[in-house]
Design goal:
By secondary structure, the protein is mainly α. The protein has one domain (about 5-265). Helices cover about 75% and strands about 0% of the residues. It is built from 12 helices and no strands. The two termini are about 25 Å apart.
């Protein structure tokens, strides 16, 4: 893989992993559109490592407070918002992780990567989830903020991640933010909780694939680019959602999905 391709894919990963538009869809489609070689799994995980670093660094103070709160809640019996959210994240992640592994294997058999049915599945998921995100966000009220998310809301949002593993193009951040809005969580809180929720799942995936990393200049550039772009995107999205809606991302999903669908038949 050339350095130019690594840079482009790093930018794509940094933008799409953290916005509700599906990074897996973009990383699968971009090489196909430009007739590049298929992305090696190790490089795909490397790009996710870059955005994991971005999320971890951006929310470092939050994670320190969450871990400290979670520890104190168990050891010192001190209740706090941070302790509550920490254990909600743990409880929500375990079933989501197990279910994701099962559904991911099923998805590999139903939608073989690189096949026509795989691309069609991506296009359909982009369009359908775009429509769902648009109408859910438009109709949902904002009654719950980050600090007051309940255990039921936390678990439902967490388990929804598994749907992204089952259907390529759904988007982990897209489904979690959509479900959060469906459960009346405000937009900014939905995004923040989604980012925090993604951290252990991505970390586990990176850890499992660490031995397959192939360190090269292209590898380093891909990680670095996805990291820098990821930081910018997190800051942008949290600020944007203070007043804006998810409409622009929903419309983008539908347009991008339609383009992919058209290209699969034209080619």
């Amino acid at each position: 893989m050339s350095i130019f391709q690594a840079l482009i894919l790093g930018i794509v990963q940094g933008l799409t992993e953290l916005l509700p538009v599906s990074s897996s869809a973009h990383l699968a489609v971009f090489p196909w559109i430009f007739h590049w070689e298929e992305i090696p799994e190790s490089f795909d995980i490397a790009l996710h490592f870059g955005t994991l670093l971005a999320i971890s660094l951006f929310f470092i103070k939050d994670w320190i407070a969450l871990i400290k709160g979670g520890f104190n809640q168990v050891v010192k019996k001190e209740k706090s918002t941070e302790g509550k959210i920490f254990w909600y994240l743990v409880i929500a992640t375990i079933p989501a992780g197990i279910l994701s592994l099962v559904l991911d294997k099923l998805s590999e058999n139903l939608f073989p990567e690189g096949s026509r049915i795989y691309l069609i599945a991506i296009a359909v998921a982009l369009i359908v989830m775009g429509l769902v995100l648009y109408f859910v966000d438009k109709k949902a009220k904002s009654e719950t903020d980050y600090e007051n998310i309940s255990l039921v809301q936390a678990v439902l949002i967490g388990i929804s991640q598994a749907i992204a593993a089952a259907f390529p193009g759904v988007s982990r951040s897209g489904i979690t933010m959509t479900v959060a809005r469906m459960l009346k969580v405000d937009r900014e809180s939905a995004a923040k909780y989604s980012f925090l929720l993604s951290t252990p799942i991505i970390f586990a995936a990176v850890l499992v694939s660490l031995s397959s990393f192939e360190f090269s200049l292209a590898f380093v550039m891909g990680v670095l680019t996805s990291f820098i772009v990821g930081l910018i995107v997190i800051k942008f999205l949290l600020n944007y959602l203070k007043k804006g809606s998810f409409k622009i991302f929903a419309v983008y999903r539908m347009i991008f999905g339609a383009i992919i669908l058209a290209l699969t038949f034209i080619r």
